[in-house]
Each structure stands twice: as C-alpha cells, then as structure tokens.
C-alpha cells in the first residue's frame, strides 16, 4: 500500500462561516479527488488560523508555541503539499496569515508544492495572489502551482452586474487542484501512469517560460 500523501490546508478567514474556509474546502476536496485519481493516498488536515491567533501572538513574545500552534507548525513542516488561503486586507494577505508563516521554519517549505487561494470583496483584489502571495512563497522557496484561485462575491452567487472571473470558480478550482497533484506526483516519483490518469491541462501563454515562448515563435524544439 502506498504511503499517505499529507496535504495541509491553511485557512486565515476570520468569520464564521468564512469565505476563505469555503474556498479552502473546495480546493482541498478537488485536490483529494485528483490525488486519488492519480493513485495517491491523500490525507488532508485543515487548520483555521482564527483559532490559533492568540497562540501566534504569544509565540512572538515568548518564543514558545502552545500545543495547538505547535501541532499546526509541525503539520506544515511535514506536509507533502500545502493549500494556503487568505482573505484580502488592504490589498494584501492578512496579518494573521503572514504571522503564522513567520513562526514556521523558513526552510520548511523549500521544494514543497503550494496552491494559493484568496478571497475578497471585489474582483479587483485578485492580483493579490500574484503581487503579494507569490513573492512570499517564492522567498520560502516553495514550488507554487501556476493557477492561483481568487473568489469574489460573484463567485458565491452574490453581487449584480459582474460576471465571474475566468469562467467560474469550479473550473479554476479543478485546474489548480490538478496542477498541485501533478507537482505531487513528480515530487513523490509516482509511476508514469499516475500522472496520465489526470485530466489534460492546456498550457496558457502566460504559464510558459521565456524559452518555451521563443521555441513556439521559431519552431525550435
């Protein structure tokens, strides 16, 4: 039997219920489904940072992680893949989200596949994934999947007169989940047939490297 694949989900939502948690749950469910299709044995663990806020603050002052916080930190540091979702505050990730990753060993995420998600009150905030979250996880040397998922009120059936982003939330969630599992399959040296079971994901021009774009133009291999 294959060893379990540990997928850790971090949700920094503050409300109850939280749109960030709703998005995190959709991403984790899609990832778990894609992982099973790929022949992996996913084990998903979700942490709500709202429940750890006081422990995170105390950790900065005392240098001591209370048991619940220590459990979350250890889970992230042992993870085979990470799904990280934050609400948008002041055009960036939340302070709680950043504070949690400040208490995680900065070397822990090196080479770990990470799927990024965010929620906000307007589609205009969708760039927070590329301009705030990606730089943070690039600094931590994580392997960030190409598709980040932002959910605006229109994606939950709220708001008027605005079309959902990029063809709908479900499509973006499924695409990002497949990309994360492909990274997992590569990282865990899964059998070639495992990756072949996943749906084909078309490569967008913005996902290609400069060398790939140049090859397309010149006809080079």
TrEMBL record:
Q: Does the keyword Oxidoreductase apply?
A: yes
Gene3D superfamilies per the record? 3.40.50.360
- Domain (NADPH-dependent FMN reductase-like) spans 6-156
- Point out the signal peptide segment: none
Keywords, A to Z, come to:
Flavoprotein, FMN, Oxidoreductase
Quote the Pfam families the UniProt record gives.
FMN_red
TM annotation in the entry? none
Entries under InterPro entries matching the protein: CE1759_FMN_reduct, Flavoprotein-like_sf, FMN_Rdtase-like_dom, NAD(P)H-dep_FMN_reductase
Record protein name field: FMN reductase
Identify the species of origin.
Sinomonas flava
């Amino acid at each position: 039997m294959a060893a379990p694949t540990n997928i850790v989900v971090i949700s920094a939502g503050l409300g109850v219920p939280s749109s960030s948690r709703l998005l995190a749950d959709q991403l984790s469910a899609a990832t778990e489904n894609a992982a099973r299709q790929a022949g992996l044995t996913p084990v998903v663990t979700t942490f709500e940072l709202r429940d750890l806020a006081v422990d995170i603050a105390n950790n900065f002052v005392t240098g001591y992680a209370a048991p619940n916080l220590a459990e979350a930190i250890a889970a992230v540091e042992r993870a085979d893949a990470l799904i990280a979702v934050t609400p948008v505050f002041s055009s960036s990730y939340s302070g709680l989200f950043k504070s949690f990753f400040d208490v995680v060993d900065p070397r822990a995420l090196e080479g770990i596949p990470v799927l990024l998600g965010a929620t906000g009150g307007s589609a205009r905030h969708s760039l927070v994934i590329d301009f705030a979250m990606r730089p943070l996880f690039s600094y931590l040397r994580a392997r960030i999947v190409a598709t980040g998922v932002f959910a605006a009120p229109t994606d939950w059936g709220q708001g008027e007169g605005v079309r959902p982003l990029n063809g709908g939330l479900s499509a973006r969630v499924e695409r990002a989940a497949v990309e994360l599992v492909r990274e997992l399959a590569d990282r865990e040296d899964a059998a070639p047939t495992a990756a072949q079971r996943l749906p084909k994901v078309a490569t967008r021009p913005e996902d290609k490297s400069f060398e790939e774009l140049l090859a397309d133009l010149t006809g080079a291999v």
